[in-house]
Amino acid sequence: MSLFVDTVRTLYFPNTGDPRFSSFKYKIQIKDTCGNLSPMSLYHKTMFLQDQLNSNFMWSHYEIEGQPQPVPSLVSYLFIRDNDLDGIFETVIGSTTSNTFTDGQYFSFNNTADWRVETNWSIGCNPTLRINGQDQTQTVIVKSKSNIKNNRTVGIKSEIKNITSKIKVYPNPATDVLNVEISLLNEKGATIRIENMLGQVACEMQTNKQINSINTMNLISGVYFVKVDTGAGIRIEKIVIE
Questions:
Q1: Can you give the residue ranges of every domain in the chain?
Q2: Per-residue DSSP letter, 110
Q3: Could you tell me which residues come within 8 angstroms of residue 178 by beta carbon, excluding any fewer than 6 positions away?
């Protein structure tokens, strides 16, 4: 299939494969059924956004090996903001072909918002992936995304329904691993369920442990709900998977 997940990026020194900390270059090589390897593709280098903490932002250009910056197929960068931490970047602050931008409302949102850069391409692709043994074609993709940036420790909005146990879910946004801590577990344990925005179950597990680490590398980027049922009630946490 045509979707690639980098499962060993934390092994690169020093964390350069993790989009939260740095940009990184990738080349692709095709291996056929006889084991023959094709030539390596041109590298693509991801974007990395940085907050200068004064309303100014800068990021590394998206790069394609041997092409000028910005690359010719890039129409513009879109600088966008998630105003209320729901994982929906609803406010397009502006567009540019440069790699810097200023948010004139920065100090009205710096404690409550996230920022991200997206590319606006003149080209598109139809990625495919396998889910539960079935090959699926995804929506045409016409953009690439940077890391999410803010200048605070992100809190988690939650909904509590008849439960006295304390639940902690982190990090948020999550990339490789999501940790769920449950205090005051009873002897029957708890059920942890991760659902997408359509209510489809992406992951479910029974646990008797207070600290649980869940692999999220195979989850598609987006907004999810973590539901923890201890038998005494259900706690729901909204999270973002990058």
A1: 9-137, 158-241
A2: T
A3: 169, 170, 171, 194, 213, 214, 216, 226, 239, 241
Report domain 158-241's class. Answer: mainly beta
- Measured between alpha carbons, how far is 27 from 29 in angstroms, rounded to an integer? 7
The residues near 140 (Cβ < 8 Å, ≥ 6 apart) are 124, 125, 126
At 113, which amino acid appears? Answer: A
Tens of pLDDT, residues 90-148: 899 999 999 999 999 999 988 788 899 999 988 877 777 666 666 666 666 678 888 88
32 and 159 Cβ atoms separated by less than 8 Å: no
pLDDT in tens, 61-75: 999 999 999 999 999
Taking the C-alpha atoms of residue 18 and residue 173, their distance in angstroms, rounded to an integer, is: 13
Q: What is the CA radius of gyration of the chain?
A: 20
